[in-house]
Design a protein that fits this description.
The protein has 516 residues and is an alpha/beta fold. The chain is 34% helix and 22% strand. The protein has a 9-stranded mixed beta sheet, with helices on both faces. A 6-stranded parallel beta sheet has the order 5-4-3-6-7-8, sandwiched between helices. A hairpin with a 2-residue loop joins strand 11 and strand 12. The protein is globular. The N terminus is likely disordered.
């Protein structure tokens, strides 16, 4: 069972941390970019914080020909590149637990070799815990690896009842559409029990995303007004300054709907709008998130034009530098209709949120990098300050900043210094880094620790994945069938007229991407 340890962080009133259960972590794609940039540095931080079990080891699997020593050298170079405070002694002590095996993912003999190597390592580390298989590989080979794990006896339940069953960790995207998502879930369910499957959406590992639950359900002053009686609308923004870069080939077959809406955006909406779970455990939290997704009003062919705007960046300027348009990116077809931006108006048809619009937007090559949830409350029904020219009071606004400058702000009205009638809009703000005095942990630290501790709270369940795809299927079909051409917007734009019109026709405005 996972253990609880007091946190190493300061200035926290009540804080306990899980420690990892005994586990051998098997990483497919261990020579790839994600593993070196995110996974291994995050594991190193967990090791520094004494949160990994003493029997922990890692077996990297890949097609690149490497010895254990060469593999460790590569991981060490990555640690020094992505972390600023790694010493040689620390790296070498940590990497003693790292091993590597080469093979072809479609070759059954490769999995026989993996099983033999794991049996040896289990004995060496006196490990009686679970094996965690992490697929850090392109999603089109998930099915192949999962099936081979089953055929090779690596996904089978353990004979020892005291030893946890093998676990599977996969990265998004979980399918390319509803049918492929269902097919992937069917393959996985034949090989692993759902209680041992961890679908990673790295946004859910961000401290500020997790804090949405704490903020809502640990403070009695907010939850009573968290409904359609007091909330006018909600905005969810995930804006990126970068273009598609090296992901152009993948992105042109995906687009913003699949890349950002189906997972990150819908997950943020579900956390912001879900009902209170009965307790803070995986099943209770995920049950409420799934119920919320079921309540999101489905899109239809007739509602597409009214509720969705698709965009694609053209050439422009960001930070004084010229940026090529999407159609000029390498590996992108010159006549591509893939969207790099989407704005959508959604509704949650339940008792709490009936009639409250949820506006979401996400895009690449925009004016700034910003992820936030903005809750705008209804205006006061009457202004008693008309004598000083204020016929309508500005609404109260709550801003949950997920990145950058992680924190929470609340805008409210108060008297300013000076005259008797002097009303000002003030913003009360706190930043996580300033308050807690530490760097916010990388999202993968939280997620990797939870995988090894057996906590599924922050991971997507199969039914939530399918519901998300089902919600977006009409948009994908309409876009594909009608060959909808995205609106062009210049790289570096803060917005563009068609996206503005989506929200302004309701008498509202987007919160500016660039703060004044």
């Amino acid at each position: 069972m996972p253990q609880l340890k007091p946190s190493l962080y300061k200035n926290i009133g009540a804080c306990q941390e899980l420690t990892a259960s005994p586990a051998g972590l098997v990483v497919f794609g261990a020579s790839g970019d994600l593993a070196h940039r995110k996974l291994f540095p995050s594991l190193f931080r967990l090791w520094q914080r004494n949160l990994l079990d003493e029997s922990f080891y890692l077996l990297g699997c890949g097609r690149k020909e490497l010895s254990d020593e060469k593999f460790r050298d590569g991981v060490k170079a990555g640690l020094k590149k992505f972390l600023s405070d790694v010493t040689d002694d620390q790296a070498e002590s940590f990497l003693k637990r790292f091993y590597y095996i080469i093979g072809d993912y479609s070759d059954r003999r490769f999995y026989e070799s993996i099983k033999e190597r794991l049996d040896v390592l289990d004995k060496e580390y006196r490990m009686s815990g679970s094996r965690v298989f992490y697929l850090s590989v392109p999603p089109d080979i998930y099915d192949k690896i999962v099936q081979q794990l089953r055929d090779g006896g690596l996904s089978c339940p353990t004979a020892n009842k005291n030893q946890p069953n093998p676990r599977l960790v996969i990265e998004k995207p979980f399918g390319h559409d509803l049918e492929t998502a269902r097919q992937l879930n069917r393959t996985i369910s034949r090989c692993f029990d759902e209680s041992n499957v961890y679908r990673i959406d790295h946004y859910l590992g961000k401290e500020t995303v997790q804090n949405i639950l704490m903020f809502r359900f640990a403070n009695s002053i907010f939850e009573p007004v968290w409904n359609n009686n007091y909330v006018d609308h909600v905005q969810v923004t995930i804006a990126e300054k970068d273009g598609v870069g090296r992901r152009a080939g993948y992105y042109d077959n995906s687009g913003a709907i699949r890349d950002m809406i189906q997972n990150h955006t819908l997950q943020l909406i579900s956390l912001a709008a879900m009902e209170p779970p009965v307790s803070f455990d995986a099943d209770s939290v995920r049950d409420e998130k799934t119920k919320l997704l079921k309540a999101v009003r489905p899109f239809s062919e007739s509602s597409f034009a009214e509720n969705v705007v698709l965009g694609q960046y053209s050439s422009g300027t960001i930070n004084g530098q010229s940026v090529a348009g999407y159609l000029e990116e390498e590996s992108v077809a010159g006549d591509s209709l893939t969207e790099t931006f989407i704005a959508a108006r959604m509704f949650v048809d339940n008792w709490r949120w009936s009639g409250v619009p949820f506006y979401c937007r996400t895009g690449k090559c925009l004016a700034s990098k910003k992820t936030e949830i903005v809750v705008t409350f209804k205006q006061m029904p009457h202004s008693m300050f008309a004598s000083i020219g204020i016929e309508q009071l500005p609404p109260n606004i709550l801003i949950m900043r997920i990145q950058p400058d992680e924190g929470i702000s609340l805008r409210f009205q108060a008297k300013g210094p000076g005259g008797k009638m002097c009303l000002s809009t003030l913003e009360m703000t706190f930043n996580y880094k300033d308050i807690f005095g530490v760097e916010i942990p990388e999202a993968y630290q939280r997620l990797l620790l939870d995988c090894m501790a057996g906590d599924q709270t922050l991971f997507m369940r199969y039914d939530a994945v399918e519901i998300s795809w089902k919600l977006l299927e009409p948009i994908l079909q309409d876009r594909r069938g009608n060959k909808i051409k995205p609106v062009q917007y210049p790289a570096g734009a803060a917005s563009f007229p068609q996206a503005d019109e989506l929200i302004e026709k309701d008498g509202r405005k987007w919160r500016p991407l660039k703060d004044n």
